[in-house]
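#onboarding

Welcome to the new folks! Below is a worked example of what a typical request in this channel looks like: someone posts a single protein sequence, and someone else replies with the predicted structure as tokens. Don't worry about understanding the tokens yet, we'll cover that in week two.

Example request:
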Amino acid sequence: MSDTGKFLEYEQGGAVFEPYFVHPGDGDRPLVLVCHAWGGQHDFERSVAADLAAKGYAAFAVDLYGKGKRGNSPDENTALMTPLVSDRARLQSRLAKSLELASSQPGVLPSKTAALGFCFGGLCVLDIARMGADVTAVVSFHGLLSAADNLPSPSVTAKVLALHGWDDPLATPENVIDFGKEMDGAGADWQLYAYGGTVHAFTNPEANDKASGNAYSPTVTRRAWAACDDFLAESFMD
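Example response:
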């Protein structure tokens, strides 16, 4: 089964955005949004979309920064991410538009939609759930777990899976406890896998500085993807 990917374009708020859509090539398929890390939509997210298509899903790699706006250093990444993390309503508006466009693509089943994301993208998919968007499930890989200040009492209908490095300095054990309390309060069907001896960015092969809290782990990546695959299969089966 071969997949073909293509860039799309749309406008929102006077800016142009360029997501990437991949379909297995035949039939109507469940849809999975791929939310990018703090640097924007790069080859990594597009390769994840291609892998998802190979598994039989239609995949939509979002672009939340705008066409051509990509970071290639920590400073550039921070400059791109901070305005959206600081304005969650603005972030959620962009996520809603991405979801609307993805759901309208030919060959997708809008009734079976999930979202997964990495780092900043993990926060994004959790906000999709917090928004009460009509999605089946969300999966956060080493995501930021902080609650959305504009949604103090969310009601979460999507199933939630958080895949978390226990030693992640960006999501401390205290943050994890707060996240669990939030999900319980939101009435969510949620679960969290915490991987010991694991820091932030464990799925990123370019992360290689464990002392600073960012390091790739092929073993944890394999375990996390196995958990994600099982979770998506179970969620779409219901």
